[in-house]
Write a structure and sequence with these properties.
Elements (H helix, E strand, L loop, with lengths): L2 H27 L10 E3 L19 E3 L19 E3 L20 E3 L8 H6 L9 E3 L11 H8 L5 E2 L2 E2 L2 H11 L1 H8 L1 E2 L2 E2 L37 H10 L4 E7 L6 H6 L8 E7 L1
Parallel strand pairs: 1-2, 2-3, 3-4, 4-5, 5-6
Antiparallel strand pairs: 6-7, 8-9, 10-11
Length: about 280
Amino acid sequence: MGIATWAQEILYIRSVFCLFVVIEDHLATRNIKKDKDVTELYLAEKELTECTDLSRFKYLKCLWLNKNMLRQITCLENNFQLSELYLQNNQLTDVYGSLKHLTSLEVLMLHNNQITKLDLIVKEFKKMQCLKTLNLFNNPVAQEPDYRLFVIHSVPSAELLDRQEVLKSEKDNARKIYSQEREKIRETVAFGRRSEGPPNIYYPGNEQRLTKFDTRDLGNSFLRDSPVYVSEDDAFNARRLKKSVTLYTTFDWSKLPRLEERRQTDNVFDSPEIITHVYR
């Protein structure tokens, strides 16, 4: 083993030992004795070059690793409950494959690093449907063309990107650029359904009759299965008469004799009259 390799091993062991000491001091300061009780871990500004596996803290939700000298992140393989992760001000060049499993993240800070390859970095956020705050500024990726619109399109849940609110107009522009096929379909939809043509097909004037149109192809129209109407009012009246009705039926007992009258006569009386009320 060469001298350079020995030096790297010594640096790694020293970093791991320093991190162990920092974590233990952090837990002792807060009087935490069980790993399952750790929900926040502050490891910022510790001059860390490596970070050991933090799987022992299964319920960890907030982690500060900012202002260190980290070049990669391989310590979060089993910390699925993380909701806030602070990695800004490090020396990260790539986080691909290190964060995509953290689907509960709501806040992710990655600014002031050396991250490149925008298409790879946004793939990390694909399953992060709760991610609302994201910082990537002061990275090489932030200099790529249409960077902001591409990130907005790739992370639809983002509400704050690089310390600026994500506007509805930006989401619309991003959709028009990166979802062109979907936008073409969207433009053909009118009032929740596909348009069957201009308004004069459905509401013709007195001078125009619709005998030349096949009313069976007009979809949800007042012309369907109906005669061709001259005016809009005629169509409204016809539709009103076809609305569903409510029937309320009662018996008219007022025209029947009382029990005493029945006993005093031998006449045969008819059944009570049925009265039906119709409500539209």
